[in-house]
Automatic annotation (TrEMBL):
Name of the protein in question: Sugar ABC transporter substrate-binding protein
Family: Belongs to the bacterial solute-binding protein 2 family.
Organism: Deinococcus aetherius
Coiled coil: none
Residues annotated as signal peptide: 1-20
Length: 323
């Protein structure tokens, strides 16, 4: 009975898409990494608003984790069969997703990467994303200036091996901080998959390894939240500075509360709206988007820092994720 009901829902959805195609309505697909991370929730919200305003029909899908490539491959194939002419995707596996993207493009589908680039970048028609290296660099610069003349003991809570967004932010942070990847001041590195619970465990392990850690880089704000909980459970959280990337409303509130020292704010709703706009242009004119569009990044902190352009938390809350 459940299978029949599910099939009925699918057939109704496909029927709606077929009618949309007959009516000349743009059908746009959006595939994000997960439905759990608030960043991607906000991106989907932005895509829905933009699609509704443009009169387009939006299909959405998500993986089960930040590195779930199989679900994204299946979603691309389903959307192509359903008649989507543009697919927007935040690639989980920047290399593993390429064959599915190329197959879709061979059928005339415009594919645009949001937030994360593919490897190679030329696998997609266009990229609308944060400069993730710059995002890491900004918080690294802030951390380096803050720790100038002090003894830094650093932990790195990363994403997962081989994922371009994680590599770019990690390397940007180190460059901004002014330390080499082999610097002995980096006493712990852990992968977290961008997950709060995994981050809590990873941070607890780092503190067991070296309780003197006083600087923590985190790949995103859910990881920063998990790290803060572990640090608080281990003692005095005020002795540890946490740096992150996202700039979501809760993340900015955490900066204001002193839980996060500084974060790089990015704008997923802007990425989504640009993607839907490009989809409409392709539907109406046949012209595809191309190249890389930087959707901007700003450094948010509660305290200013000499030599750095810092936005305060009031700005951060007024602009969190493009609100």
């Amino acid at each position: 009975m459940k299978k029949r009901a599910a099939l009925g829902v699918t057939l109704l959805a496909l029927a709606g898409l077929t009618q949309a195609q007959k009516d000349g309505q743009a059908v746009v697909g959006l595939i994000v990494k997960t439905d759990v991370n608030p960043f991607f929730v906000k991106m989907k919200e932005g895509a829905r608003k933009s699609a509704a305003a443009a009169g387009a029909r939006l299909m959405t899908a998500a993986g089960t984790a930040d590195d779930d490539n199989d679900s994204q491959v299946a979603a691309i194939q389903k959307m192509v069969r359903a008649g989507a002419k543009t697919i927007l995707i935040t690639p989980a596996d920047t290399q593993g997703i390429v064959p599915a993207i190329r197959a879709a493009r061979a059928k005339g589908v415009q594919v645009i990467a949001l937030d994360s680039t593919t490897d190679p970048k030329s696998a997609v028609d266009a990229i609308f994303a944060t400069d993730n290296n710059k995002a890491g660099y900004l918080i690294g610069r802030y951390a380096g200036e803050m720790m100038r003349g002090k003894r830094a003991v650093v932990a790195m809570l990363d994403l997962a091996p081989g994922l371009s967004v994680g590599i770019a932010r990690h390397n940007g942070f180190l460059k901004g901080f002014g330390i080499d990847p082999a610097d002995p001041r980096i006493v712990c590195q852990q992968d977290t998959n961008g997950n709060k619970d995994l981050a809590r465990t990873a941070m607890a392990n780092c503190l067991k390894k070296n309780p003197d850690i006083n600087v923590v880089y985190t790949i995103n704000e859910p990881v920063a939240a998990g790290a803060y909980e572990a640090i608080k459970a281990a003692g005095d959280p005020g002795k540890v500075a946490i740096f992150s990337v996202d700039g979501g409303c809760q993340g900015v509130r955490d900066v204001r509360a002193g839980k996060i020292t500084a974060t790089s704010q990015q704008y997923p709703m802007r990425m989504a709206s640009l993607g839907v706009e490009a989809a409409m242009t392709y539907t109406k004119t046949g012209k595809k988007a191309s190249g890389y569009t930087d959707t901007s990044v700003n450094l948010i902190a509660a305290k200013s820092m000499s030599g750095l352009k810092v936005k305060d938390t009031a700005f951060g809350l007024n602009n969190c994720w493009g609100n």
